[in-house]
Structures are given as C-alpha cells and as structure tokens.
enoyl-CoA hydratase (Bugula neritina), 336 residues
Amino acid sequence: MALVNTIVGALKSAAACRYAVPTSSSLLQRHNRLALGNNYNGGSAFYSNITVEKKGKKNNVGFIQLNRPKALNALCDALMKELQTALSDFSKDEEVGCVVLTGSNKAFAAGADIKEMQPREFAEVYKGDFLGFWNSISLFKKPIIAAVNGYALGGGCEIAMMCDIIYAGEKAKFGQPEILLGTIPGGGGTQRLTQAVGKSKAMEMVLTGDQISAQEALQFGLVANVYPVEELVDKVMEKAEKIASMSQIATGMAKEAVNSSYEMTLAEGIHLERRLFHSTFATILKLAINSIGSCNMGIINAKLITCKQYIRNVPLLDLKTCARIMRTAPTCFYVK
Ligand code: CAA
C-alpha cells in the first residue's frame, strides 16, 4: 500500500510538474529576459535578432546591434520589424537624444535575406509592398548614426544610408551587389547612393556589384570618418553622446533641414531652414524668461543664441549671473 501511495504521489507530482512547465512562448520570453539582462526593451518588446540598450554616461544614447551572426545580419522580416519597434520605443523615450545602429565586426548587414526573398513572387511582393516599411528608418526623428564594421551590402548599405551619419571601421565594405542576383537595389540604394557618391560611382557600383572599401567610401563622401575596427563603436558613442547632449528640438530641426535638401528645391529648402531657424527663437526666448526669473526683463533683448548648457541643468539665475550672461552675450540657454 505504501508503494501504491508512493507511486500515486509520484504520479501526482509529475502531473503537477507537467502543468507547471511553462509554455514554449513563456519559456522563450523568460530566456530572452535572462539573456537580455538589463537590456532596454522600451516596455514593449523582447528581441531575438537585435540587441537593444541605452548607453552613455547619461544613458541618453539608444544602442541597437544587429544580431544574426550566422547569417551575417541578413535583414530578414523579423529583424526589420524588431528594428522598427526598437526605433519606435526610442522615439518615445524622452531621455534618448541619439541612436547608434551597428552590427558585428564581420558584418553590419549582408543585405536583405536572400533565402527569405528567393521563393517570393511578383504578385506577392508588389501587393504587399515588400520592403516598403524599411523606409521608416529614414523617417525616425532623432539623430541616428550607423557604425559600420565589415560588410554593408545591398539592404545593409541601404539601411546605413537611411541613417544620418555613417562611420566606418577600416575593414568595412560597402556595395549594392543585387545585380549579381539578377535584381536591383530595392531599399533606396539607387537613390541615396547616387546622392552620396555621385552618379558615376553609384552607377559603377550598382551595375557591376563591385564593393568599395571604407577609405573609398570616405573619399566619396559616403561616410563621415573611418576608425580602427576595435575603436569604431567607442568613437561613434563619443559622437552620439555629444549629439544627445544637445537640445532635442534643435537636433530634430537641424536634421529636418538637412534632410529637406534631398527633397526640395534650393529656394524651398532655404525657406524651410529660415523658418525652422526662426522657430528656435521661441524656445530660446521662453528659456531666457525662465532663466532670468525676476531679473530685469531687458535681458530678453540681449543678443540671444549660442547655447552651451541645458535648461535642465541650469538653476533659476540670480541677478549677478544674469549680468554676467549679458556681458558674455551672445549667450543663452535652450530648451532640451
Ligand atoms: N541573406 C541570407 N543569408 C546570407 C546573406 C544574405 N544576404 N549573406 C550571407 N548569408 C549567410 C550565408 O548564406 C551563410 O549562411 P550558411 O552558412 O547557413 O549558408 C552565412 O551568411 C555566411 O555567409 P558566407 O559563407 O557567404 O560568408 P563569406 O564570408 O564567404 O561571404 C559575403 C560573405 C561576401 C557577404 C557573402 O555572404 C555574400 O555575398 N552575401 C550576399 C550579399 C548580397 O548579395 N546582398 C544583397 C542581398 S539582396 C538585397 O539586399 C536587396 C535589397 O536591395 C534590399
């Protein structure tokens, strides 16, 4: 009987265990949480093709690393959707003033996922506007920097070009090799590459599939600077922290103005720039009023602009400080 009881007890606890076993999705979530450690998830998602965190001394840089090493970060649908979610989270995060997008030392990204693309038919890609949503990266409002080590090919080169600045590691390779697959760039390559390197070089790259080195990319203006492979991310983080420390309103407007040069005529672009420039006075003036508090309102007429500090870091100013500000004009503070 004791044996029977033992067997019955064991069966009961086995059954209890079975019901306690987490479902595969909850296991996956738990695994992801553990694997992600303190990684940022913006409150809305866990990722399996990218890692996402906030970095920098002030925790104000959003850092996204493409993470499909076995496929050289090929941009499958799932990865691109995760990237879109991460950017959406960072766009809502007030603390984040700049985002860095990077890959591994071997590959930033080797392009759209060829294995995923291969079975697709015209009707499906046309009706589903395949790759259409990729463009959301270029619509991201905050500054975003691509830190490219290794291959940035096809879609990899294209998403780097959707970023505001590209920095490259010395061994980076850029290319639009789609022609070698019997197709053409589909993520903006023919347009953005041409704007970045000029028609002749872009044509050469798009028509031959030839890759260019980091040094050539620098020479042609595709990248802003080249760093040793191991130093790239640190150097880019320095730039990102610097950008993130600026007024988000000003960086947003500066980005909008520069990007408008791609879309508008010179006259329209200059008009937009001036209007944006004028609108920065609204934030500056407000700040001046906030900052001077009970001071002589005459300071508001002092020369404004040229900003070195954040309003958040600036306590209400006393009269003496205001007087000093007036002496050292043009100086002002801006709204973050
Ligand atoms: N899609 C899917 N898988 C890819 C891939 C891609 N774009 N690029 C590389 N991989 C995979 C390979 O299949 C391989 O996986 P398996 O071991 O499972 O077969 C793994 O990554 C490693 O690749 P290789 O063995 O080829 O690595 P390598 O060092 O010898 O060569 C490479 C590196 C030169 C980048 C080479 O992988 C390559 O040429 N890749 C394809 C690049 C390409 O054509 N990109 C354009 C894609 S189309 C596109 O992007 C359209 C668009 O405009 C959006």
User: Anything to note?
Assistant: Residues 266-292 form the longest helix (27 residues).
